[in-house]
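Worked example 4.2. Below are the chains of a multi-component assembly; read each line carefully before continuing.
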Amino acid sequence: MTGNPRAVLDTGAVMAYAHGVDTVGEVLVQAADAKAEVWLPSTCLIEAYSHLDFDEFDLVGLLRANPVVVVIPPQSASNGDDLPGIGGMARRAGRLGAGHAAFLAMSRAAEVVTSRPDQIRAALLDDWPVIEVLTP
Amino acid sequence: MTKRVTISLPDDVAARLEALPPRQVSAYVAETIRSRAAADDMRALLAKAGMKNIPPYDPIGAAAKVAEARASVTDDMLERAYAKFAEITGRDITDVKAEFEARRTAFDDR
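Applying the procedure described above to all two chains together yields the following structure tokens:
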């Protein structure tokens, strides 16, 4: 894994993908065509599963299986403990997944694809680049 | 396991392969096909998810858009984000900056 990801997917982006929203698809094909990656925080994935219907789980599984999409769990190791930082950002954002997405976006200077720009920007900056998606 | 195949290529494409060291040709072709396959698989996935307006394969245009997206987070933004993070977590800004620089290396090793 090298270089900054094309974007970080927040929970709403995963749900938008499962519901066929084109905006998410554009980001994913850009990453695929450019041999880049899209990062998916594991907490956002869990949040998305908690909102999706069971019959949508297979679609999310296929997304996870594509090499362009890299699921990033929180790390707690000697070379960096993510947990306090994610927790602090989640408190500011108001949601755990948003905190994790914001943390990874700051770690790698990446845009965030989200249905809640307000939450991401509460944890980062008012002018942090986001791609807003609408979840049906 | 490998399989030997014979293909015909346009002159300009063949010239690219001929310019490579002989032992690197197969790896070059395999890497190129795998990248294209990942892009094709992604499109098939998005169609399965119900997306109707999937852009055609465009590696040059995509690379430009990815570079533009990466440039959209400026050094000034990062400095301000680090300062806000330091405030949120009650930490010293110098420590925060040093940690996130170290994280860049750590992420590459994951």
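Take a moment to check your reading of the output against the notes. The mean pLDDT of chain B is 90. Chain B touches chain A through 46 residues (CB under 8 Å).
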